Amino acid sequence: MECTVRWHDGMSFIAETGSGHLVAMDGAPDAGGRNLAPRPMELLLAGMGGCTAFDVVLILQRGRHAVSGCTVKLQAERADTDPKVFTRINLHFTVTGKALKPEAVERALKLSAEKYCSASIMLEKTAEISHSFELVEA
């Protein structure tokens, strides 16, 4: 896996991923940025959310559960001093489907957190990570 990050201007940067996609990043106005794009740490949090949501949907689909939607809302706290690492992250999943069993969703969340989601497993080295979920009948 590779990625190239180029300084654009001000405190704006453009990342080009190994798969050829572009992602813009910018700093906060108080740090010389213009607030035109997400901050790098926001992208890290979004990456964790994407990684675990991908796992949960795939695990449920492979288990032949009728999942039709998955949203994860992440709320994070960071250290007060540098390096301002994530210290606490809560992931709240809203999983939509037909006759989904809570046990199946709990199992998918656990497998993602403990075995498959590289981002979660990496971030748990500095952050206390918690999960919750709700089911919505399709």
Textual characterization of the structure:
- It comes from Rugosibacter aromaticivorans.
- Pfam families: OsmC.
- This is Peroxiredoxin.
- The chain is built from three helices and six strands, in the order E-E-E-H-E-E-H-H-E.
- The protein is of the alpha+beta class and 138 residues long.
- The chain folds into two domains: 1-38, N-terminal domain of TfIIb; 40-137, GMP Synthetase, Chain A, domain 3 (2-Layer Sandwich).
- The strands form two sheets. Strands 1-2-3 form a three-stranded antiparallel sheet, with no helix packed on it. It has a three-stranded mixed sheet with strand order 4-5-6, covered by helices on one side.
- A hairpin with a 4-residue loop joins strand 2 and strand 3 (22-25).
- Helix 1 crosses helix 2 (102-116).
- The N and C termini lie far apart (37 Å).
- The mean pLDDT is 97.
